[in-house]
User: Fold these one by one.
Assistant:
Number 1:
Amino acid sequence: MVSTILPLTVENIALRRRGRRILGPISWQLGGTGITVLMGPNGSGKTSFLRAMHGLERISDGRLHWSAPIDQTRARQSFVFQTPILMRRSVVDCIAYPLLLDGVSRRIARDRAAEAATQVGLAAMLDQPAQLLSGGEKQKLALARALVRGPELLFLDEPCANLDGRSTSDIEKILLAARDAGTRIVMSTHNLGQARRLADDVLFLYVGQLVEFGPASRVLQTPATPEMTAFIKGDLLP
Amino acid sequence: MNDIWQGLAQAARLIVARDADLIEIATLSLQVSLGATLVASLIGLPLGAWLAINRFRVRRVVIATMNALMGLPPVVVGLFVYVLFSRSGPFGVLGLLFTPTAMVIAQVIIITPIVASISHQAIRDLWADYHDLLISLNASRTQRIKALLWDGRRALMTASLAGFGRAIGEVGAIMIVGGNIDHATRVLTTAIALETGKGEFGMALALGFVLIALAVLVNLTVHFLSRTERGSRW
Amino acid sequence: MMLKSLALLAAMALGTAASAEEMKMAVTTSFANSGLAEVLLPEIEKDTGITVQLLVVGTGQALTLGAAGDVDAVLVHSRAAEDKWLAEGNGTHRREIMYNDFVIVGPSTDPAGTKTATNATDAFKAIAAAQAPFVSRGDDSGTHKMEQALWKTAGIEPVGDWYRSVGQGMGAALNTAAGMNAYILADRASWLNFGNKADLAIDFQGDPALFNQYAYLPVNPEKYPHVKAELVEKLEDWLVSDKAKGLIEGYKIAGQQLFVFNAQPE
Ligand SMILES: Nc1ncnc2c1ncn2[C@@H]1O[C@H](COP(=O)(O)OP(=O)(O)OP(=O)(O)O)[C@@H](O)[C@H]1O
Ligand SMILES: [Mg+2]
């Protein structure tokens, strides 16, 4: 898959909320292929940064520059939220919904949704109300829904936060497959092991600032900043 | 206490005998209240949804007005409609006063704010829930409204039923604009008021029981038709 | 599904159209409560083909409905208000039909001693002197107006805890009086038909000052061209006929005649 919306240039963006700057200023370029993992302590701005790039947050300063007209970028990216947002519908209808928005017929949408559900291991509960799923199942549903349109760019905000080892490894397999199929992935995680398994690049945020960015092998082995070093060692940051 | 048993027995007797007057009165009650509920839903449900997802300047004012209208005494609404539709009023030529149509109009005014207010609240909560997802999925404005109305259909039905409940039990307004004319505009509530006035508490209570039974029946029917009891969450 | 059935029912509701020979008449609560209407209306329909739709309200509201052109005729019992209404050009004329009488209803023990009063005014004086609870319609009805006239003749301004103005129809006011075991001025018919007498009884009656003249007032068709003047006239002819006289004087509750027919031929 050749990306039509990337690279995305993040130009000095900052988010200000209630008189406080919670993110930035950050300049960065999102391009190429692979998986970028966002790391950083709680409250460092990972969620805010992902949402800002996806267009869910009002940007106070700076701007985002996509390689395609802005009205075409939206439909080609998707987002998996830190806490899944599920519609009050059955599992299969939840996954089919983005296809319906694209004008795909209901029958075809449901067929493709059923396929996507099978890939994430939800084949047995297609007709169950989505709200009744367990936490891990909800995450899988959200992932299947995010992938069903075959996005060029996929944001995930701590997709495995509440999952057991088995489910985590299921999801990681799906993400790797998506990457190999050409989807550009940006995700946040607190799990260093997961970062080691998945990351091509690592981006480290600290108090709203981009502190370190580089290839995973380098950043995770030999961090260049004291903050990242301390974070990897599991030390509490001042 | 004795009156209540007498009322129940009387109600049973009337129903078993298929009392012609009772059937006429109860049918008109249903027609007027369901008619008003239909019209109020057609206005109130979209209005509530619209208010829930759009931010415009006078939105707060509209919502405050709507909530205030909910507390409007029916008698005031009745007088208002009477003045409008009286022969000496602006719409007098239509000759609608003391007809079921005038009763429907009065009830629409009474229950539309209720329907709109409840649906506004329900859709607002659902919108808060769905907001990020629908934006992220790039749903158009129309698609968003459709999703909210469809997924909120159960709450919207509750809003309509709340309106119906208010309508079928209403007496103050329809007494004034309907006139409680025998065989023309007499409904259960006005008949109850009449019997109470005559001191015929047993009969009044009997009609009261019929009214309750009818309201329950309509609620059950609507739930059955929409199969809302299937599935535990919606 | 729900919408379809609702639409159907709404269509039915709006389809209740008026038939040709219908007219509306505003009457007082006391007349409706007498039960005489239920005897007369079917006979009227049989003899004249007119369906008379009754709007049962207080005298004040009945005259207001007539003045607004919302009814075709009015049947009330309050001379002063009727004359004023006619003077304002609301009606064509006034035709006396019949009279009944008011009674003073009160606790069967008659704590104020009205039973021994020589006339209605004295009975009212006795109630005021004893400060015995008294329920007033307070609704501008004919009965209320009669009550006010009696207080005026007695030279009493009824105020105080004992005097309760309820602002309701005859039946509701009687219910209140029954609940409070209070005195009340009622028309005989409403009283006899009243189903919740509790400890109340007639304490005073018979003074001609308590007679209650009913009059038929057609709404002025020059003011409101839509009124069904022809039906109104037909109904008047029937109301003053010998057939009506027989039915009115023959109407009894608990063996008592309620109304005296006194219409004069034209
Ligand atoms: N709308 C807002 N108004 C005020 N402060 C906000 C708002 N949104 C986020 N913040 C603050 O911005 C900071 C960054 O929040 P964010 O959710 O991006 O952190 P995070 O890195 O995702 O944390 P976690 O690991 O706990 O998910 C936090 O201090 C948060 O309280
Ligand atoms: Mg976060």
Number 2:
Amino acid sequence: MIDVKHLSKSFGDHLVLDDISEHIHPGEKVVVIGPSGSGKSTFLRCLNLLETPTAGTITFDGMEITDPKADINAVRRQMGMVFQHFNLFPNMTIRKNITLAPVRTRLMKQDEADEAATALLRRVGLEEKADAYPAQLSGGQQQRIAIVRALAMKPKVMLFDEPTSALDPEMVGEVLEVMKELAREGMTMVVVTHEMGFAREVGTRVLFMDGGNILEQDEPHAFFDHPREQRTIDFLSKVL
Amino acid sequence: MLQSLINWLEDLGPRFYRAFFEADRWMSYLQGLVVTFEITIASIAMGLVLGLVVAMVRTAHDQQRPGRRNPLLGAVNLVCKVYTTVIRGTPMMVQILIWAFVIFKGERNKVMVGMIGMGVNAGAYISEIIRGGLMSVDSGQSEAGRSLGLGYVDTMRFIIIPQAFKNILPSMGNELVTLFKDTSLVNAIGAAEMTYYAKRIGDKTYDYMPPLIGIACIYLVFVIILTWLQGKLERRLRQSDRR
Ligand SMILES: Nc1ncnc2c1ncn2[C@@H]1O[C@H](COP(=O)(O)OP(=O)(O)OP(=O)(O)O)[C@@H](O)[C@H]1O
Ligand SMILES: [Mg+2]
């Protein structure tokens, strides 16, 4: 589904991603872990071209999206992204946050989008917040809204960049619950997280990144029970 | 000593009377004040249009993806950059003199020349105000918009500009106040605004203090009113923020 070949990214002369090749299959739940600064966010952001790769190609559903002629907005419509700091639009109601993109990109008419928004909000138990503004909601509620906002575009894959890291501990669970349900429904997901429990329970594959490389990867049980690289062992001993 | 102070105070009334009421002089000030307002409004309008265009060009240029740079946009951006640098790097007085005595040498309508000079000047400052306001919106906002598949224009229109607006408003109010006061500079090229009349009346009566102190008070009153309105508007906006 997403095919990454020889992906490199530098900021100035700082090489952040060093020749990464990886393939993400439909329905996979890929969990990316690794120490701070190892390039996890950059890798994720390259997938929907929020960062422009310095070298290498990314192919999504058979289309090379790193080609300068590719319609980048059309690609992004099919890839949802959830950010660490939610990034809801504070100048709009929750309903408008959810319906803006589907309506403006002509995916839906306003009334269809409103209906879809209501259904999505019901799904995460926030139906009564439709007319509230983001600032009136808790972090956990905002992040659940951010997830359904992305889902409103009916994406084929969802990218999560540390979706629970900015949350108070008591709100982490409600967000992870939504993500787990999404996983059960068969969504293809790439998740950068420090939640090892989530990685073990939901992940179909764990990638360990260090220094701009994918140092090691495996199916979660094997990965956590028998890490091979010393760096992985050191990292896991710190976070587990 | 005390006697001379008393004499001076006694004289004040007649002096101000001569400067403002004799021969219906107050009508000149009023006429000048209207022109002052006309120049302020024309130049802020022109400045807004110019500033908006320049700010759009410059932010659009800065936000291009590397490897997909548009050469035409690059050229226009360079022109905009030269414009803001030159205008903000030279005194407004000098600019106005250049407009009147170099560029529009034979033009009789000095008020219009003054409007152009001040409008072009305002455009450079306003473009920087708008640019700063757009940049002050958290980059996560445009990333969220773009990651949903919204284009650059839609992201600007629905997400960035409405949020930037609130940050821009205070500086824009200050710019309006500055422009209003700086209209007095165009009296140097013979544009008949309020300062121009005050000086002429001073010339005629051989007494500059009353007309100049008088118009200083008039400027001050309007600046206080403008500032008060601005504060009110900002408070209103901040309230709607906390909804
Ligand atoms: N826009 C940027 N400009 C310059 N350097 C950047 C930029 N974005 C990231 N970097 C650098 O790239 C490196 C990798 O950053 P990245 O955010 O991908 O790490 P990460 O693995 O997500 O870390 P964290 O766990 O802290 O989020 C860091 O050294 C960071 O300073
Ligand atoms: Mg990160």
